[in-house]
Amino acid sequence: MNAQILSGPAIAEEIKNELQPRIEALKAKGIIPSLTVILVGDDPASQVYVNNKHNTFIKMGLSSQVERFPSDLSEKALCQRIQALNQDPSVHGILVQLPLPKHINPQKVIATIDPNKDVDGFHVANAGALMIGQPKFIPCTPYGIMKMIEKTNVTVRGAEAVVIGASNIVGKPIALLLQAAGATVTICNSKTKDLAAHTKRADILVVAVGKPKMITGDMIKPNSVVIDVGINRGEDGKLCGDVDEETAKEVAGYITPVPGGVGVMTITMLLVNTIEAAEKTLTTF
Ligand code: NAD
């Protein structure tokens, strides 16, 4: 048996098509959704992510600015720049690319972003809103994962969902979204004693750890949905996920590939959040 592949680019294309009328409606009112990304330092992976975001926005006819700063930028100067962007009505979304250099406290920086422009959904106000079931901006990766799960024939309501990894940007928010959709959710972390005992009973398995191919086919429930969030370099130097795709696809019902899976969805949901931020300016004032 071979799992059905949940293709990030294919699902992203559908979502982008659905966004077109919303972009046109905003343009008719003189508004072009606009994102400013701040990149501090020269981390190579961050450079790639930022360029991908910029190119996707430009291709969609949206506005995108990338502000690049040297790695010795002070925390104070960064926060001052964010405060200026908060005040600028032509900027709808602000995203600070993580990780930041060690001397800058990411929580302090994220807290400086106006929650109405926090299109990453990382501000505590947005994280709290998600937790009480009234989300404003859903973090892009978990938001994209939910869109991928919608494309399967698995009903989330009543399903056993297991999330491996408990980060603020992926593990915790996807667990909240699955719970809100009616799943019974288990969150595993590095201290979990018998990981396979949990993964084997998952109808929906989300893996967001950052360890190449750590989940193998024998750890997966037959016909389940396996969402691989990890982006790693394997021993052969090629990109790979946290799931061993070769053995997992023999068992799972659906699987997301790496590359070509969740990563593409993350950028697409950033488009969605930025368009929403622009739409909200019409109702706020
Ligand atoms: P993180 O390092 O912040 O968190 C990792 C989590 O995994 C922690 O909660 C830790 O307890 C848990 N963990 C570590 N070892 C474990 C083990 N052996 N068993 C069970 N749990 C274990 O990572 P993150 O920021 O959530 O990212 C995870 C992975 O997802 C990385 O590879 C990252 O590059 C990738 N990622 C991809 C996207 C995308 O768009 N596709 C977005 C964000 C992150």
Automatic annotation (TrEMBL):
A GO BP term, please?
L-histidine biosynthetic process
Single Gene Ontology MF annotation? methenyltetrahydrofolate cyclohydrolase activity
Residues annotated as transmembrane: none
Reactions accelerated catalytically: (6R)-5,10-methylene-5,6,7,8-tetrahydrofolate + NADP(+) = (6R)-5,10-methenyltetrahydrofolate + NADPH; (6R)-5,10-methenyltetrahydrofolate + H2O = (6R)-10-formyltetrahydrofolate + H(+)
Q: Binding of NADP(+): at which residues?
A: 165-167, 231
Q: Which InterPro entries match?
A: Aminoacid_DH-like_N_sf, NAD(P)-bd_dom_sf, THF_DH/CycHdrlase, THF_DH/CycHdrlase_cat_dom, THF_DH/CycHdrlase_NAD-bd_dom
Annotated Tetrahydrofolate dehydrogenase/cyclohydrolase NAD(P)-binding domain residues: 139-280
Which Enzyme Commission numbers does its entry carry?
1.5.1.5, 3.5.4.9
Q: Which GO terms describe its cellular component?
A: cytosol
Tell me which Pfam families the record gives. Answer: THF_DHG_CYH, THF_DHG_CYH_C
Q: Which residues form the signal peptide?
A: none
Which intervals hold domain Tetrahydrofolate dehydrogenase/cyclohydrolase catalytic? 6-120
The UniProt keywords, alphabetically, are: Amino-acid biosynthesis, Histidine biosynthesis, Hydrolase, Methionine biosynthesis, Multifunctional enzyme, NADP, One-carbon metabolism, Oxidoreductase, Purine biosynthesis
Q: What does this protein do?
A: Catalyzes the oxidation of 5,10-methylenetetrahydrofolate to 5,10-methenyltetrahydrofolate and then the hydrolysis of 5,10-methenyltetrahydrofolate to 10-formyltetrahydrofolate.
Q: What PANTHER family has UniProt attached to this entry?
A: C-1-TETRAHYDROFOLATE SYNTHASE, CYTOPLASMIC (PTHR48099:SF5), C-1-TETRAHYDROFOLATE SYNTHASE, CYTOPLASMIC-RELATED (PTHR48099)
Quaternary structure and partners = Homodimer.
**Which family does the record assign?**
Belongs to the tetrahydrofolate dehydrogenase/cyclohydrolase family.
What is this protein identified as?
Bifunctional protein FolD
